[in-house]
Amino acid sequence: MTNRVFPPGFTFGVATSSYQIEGAHDEGGRGPSIWDVFCRQPGKVIRGENGDVACDHYHRWPEDIGLLRALNVSAYRFSIAWPRILPTGFETQPNAAGLDWYDRFVDALLAAGITPWATLYHWDLPQPLQEMGGWPDRRIVDHFVRYADIVSKRLGDRVGHWITHNEPWCAAILGYQSGEHAPGHQDWPEALAAAHHILLSHGRAVPVIRANSPGAKVGITLNLTPGYPASGSAADRDATRHFDGFFNRWFLDPCYGRPYPADMVADYQRLGRLPTGEIPFEKPGDIEAMGAETDFLGINYYSRAILRSDTLPEADNAPRLIPEPPPVARTDMGWEIYPEGLRDLLLRVSRDYPVKDLVITENGAAWPEGPDAEGRVRDDRRRAYLHAHLGACLDAIASGAPLSGYFGWSLMDNFEWAYGYDKRFGLVHVDYETQRRTLKDSALWYAEVARAGALLGIAG
Ligand code: IFM
Predict the structure, then answer these.
(1) Contact between 111 and 103 (Cβ < 8 Å)
(2) What is the Å distance from ligand 1's center to 269 Cα?
(3) Is the residue at 292 inside a domain?
(4) Does any domain span residue 253?
(5) pLDDT tens digit sequence for 335-390
(6) Which atom of ligand 1 is nearest to the CA of 166?
(7) Which atom, in ligand 1's list, is nearest to the CA of 362?
(8) Which of 225, 425, 427 for mutating ligand 1's site (highest number of atoms within 8 Å of CB)?
(9) Residue 397's domain spans which residues?
(10) In this predicted model, what pLDDT tens digit does every residue of 99-125 receive, in sequence order?
(11) pLDDT tens digits for 227-245?
(12) Cα(191)–Cα(185) distance, rounded to whole angstroms?
């Protein structure tokens, strides 16, 4: 049993992103993003839902800052909508109304005693930049750096924590390979080029942000998923190696100045995802630029993967040591609940990479509970999920991981991308008809944890 008290100064926060909560899609001079366009294509998002209104945070932000205060969080992670700042991406002058909105918002957070953590890119690319070619086109790097420069110049005197990108794996792979996310392409070479340009734009933006925001902490957020072989067979171990390379190392290695993992380059060449020979999108100096020194690594953790080889018939493989997890141990997303994976991941990243500081920038679970007859939201499963994962954080800290903060996903129910409004990740329930917000039981419990700086029990 490890100490159940968090280290002094540990950051307790909650997180959101612009497209998922803001709404006001055509107000304040905002231009269309790839998500506005994607949502309007039939069959891409459940029931054709979109972020036009979402949680109407653009108008209701004072009330939402009240929610943050009720949660006792010391930090709030939000993202800036690129098309509010540069509506087409190509303007020479930024959109004043867009910058003003975030300026006021940051001032109000600070006045409420809440530290702003700003993410520059959480997937809402201005649509005209996609028409130029989007993330697979190398010119996007300069566009992102210019956008990062504009925003950090304006807010850098007050925002001291910057995250360049949220989950490059999702933006590249879901956006350009599986097509589940905007812009909905299905093309491996595009996806790998997109990943490269996202990571390069991160590395190039880091010194620009530092110059505009002296003393700021700058980092990137990766979604990492630890893989476990289903058995000790060579085939399952190899499947796990490949999964880890695809999901984790392809992104972690360049962020720490290492070339793309050689085993994965070979796999991608063998699978026809990369041509043989030189990596076509990588230019001299890119790896050094991508490895720009950061102050922290943001990790989003939700679940693990259990890998069973598909190169062997089941009967020829070794017996499973890790059985398929039962359906009951999953969230509404179908993701296995596996808090030990968070501890393992934190320790593995601290061992394998020269990280100075780790922050869980997202962790949470979707379940559908809404207010009962008394107006109370009894979301015991979410509370238990948070309790177990915060416990895993404490275990990792006790074993030496340099973890300094935890942001629950999400402040409130919101637009869950291709799942629309079906999946509710919020600590605060949102009634989308009335926009009424209700703190769930998990929020009331998390507020006490944040106040005490200790992992309180969940009985009762
Ligand atoms: O809602 C998303 C978020 O935008 C990025 N990370 C995962 C969350 C849950 O799917």
Answers:
(1) no
(2) 30
(3) yes
(4) yes
(5) 999 999 999 999 999 999 999 999 999 999 999 999 999 999 999 999 999 999 99
(6) 5
(7) 6
(8) 425
(9) 11-452
(10) 999 999 999 999 999 999 999 999 999
(11) 999 999 999 999 999 999 9
(12) 9
Three-state secondary structure readout of the chain = CCCCECCCCCEEEEECCHHHHCCCCCCCCCCCEHHHHHHCCCCCCHHHCCCCCCCCHHHHHHHHHHHHHHCCCCEEEEECCHHHHCCCCCCCCCCHHHHHHHHHHHHHHHHCCCEEEEEEECCCCEHHHHHHCCCCCCHHHHHHHHHHHHHHHHHCCCCCEEEEEECHHHHHHHHHHHCCCCCCCCCHHHHHHHHHHHHHHHHHHHHHHHHHCCCCEEEEEEECCCEEECCCCHHHHHHHHHHHHHHHHHHHHHHCCCCCCHHHHHHHHHCCCCCCCCCCCCCCCHHHHHCCCCCEEEEECCCCEEECCCCCCHHHCCCCCCCCCCHHHECCCCCECCHHHHHHHHHHHHHHCCCCCEEEEECCCCCCCCCCCCCCECCHHHHHHHHHHHHHHHHHHHCCCCEEEEEEECCECCCCHHHCCCCCCCCEEEECCCCEEEEEHHHHHHHHHHHHCECCCCCC
* 225 within some domain: yes
Q: Across the strands, what pairs with 75?
A: 13, 115
User: Is 4 within a domain?
Assistant: no
With a 6 Å cutoff on the Cβ, whether 413 touches ligand 1 is: no
What's the N-to-C CA distance of the chain in angstroms? 22
The region, left, alpha or beta by phi > 0 then psi within -120 to 50, assigned to residue 365 is beta
Cα separation of 176 and 187, whole Å?
6
CA 242 to the chain's CA centroid: 22
Q: pTM surpassing 0.85?
A: yes
Count the domains in the chain: 1
CATH code for position 431 = 3.20.20.80
Which of 341, 361, 355, 456 lies closest to 400, judged by CA? 355
Identify the residue whose C-alpha is closest to ligand 1 atom 9: 416
Distances (CA, A) of 134 to 50, 128, 141, 208, 391: 21, 8, 10, 22, 40
AA identity, residue 148 = A
Catalytic residues: 167, 362
With a 6 A CB cut-off, is 416 part of the ligand 1 pocket? yes
